Prior knowledge:
Helix content: 55-70%
Distance between the termini: 64 Å
Structural class: mainly alpha
Oligomer: single chain
Amino acid sequence: MKARKKSYAKDLPRRLYTFFIGYDDERSAPSLQKFARANGFTTEELLTFRRHGDFERALRECNEIRRDYLIDRGLTKRFDASFVKYLLDGEASEQQSEEDSSLSVTLEVLP
């Protein structure tokens, strides 16, 4: 039996944002994977919803919420600060590589 693919709902960006802003687990950080499992989606299905402007904006804001959450936990020594730095550095280099990949250069050869 083939699993039915979940479809986009207008309230999904609000649910995503609410999940991240209300997350309060001392042992872990909010993530897209946790939201997906809690709502019956796969991470891949959620990422296909990025084409919807509201979802893309909510996802970017949730990434900032997660970043702030990790920083706060690192500063209060609830999470290992070195590991938090490692995670944040990885996110920064991933974002930079995404931005770098969209660069296009046009050369014109003059006689």
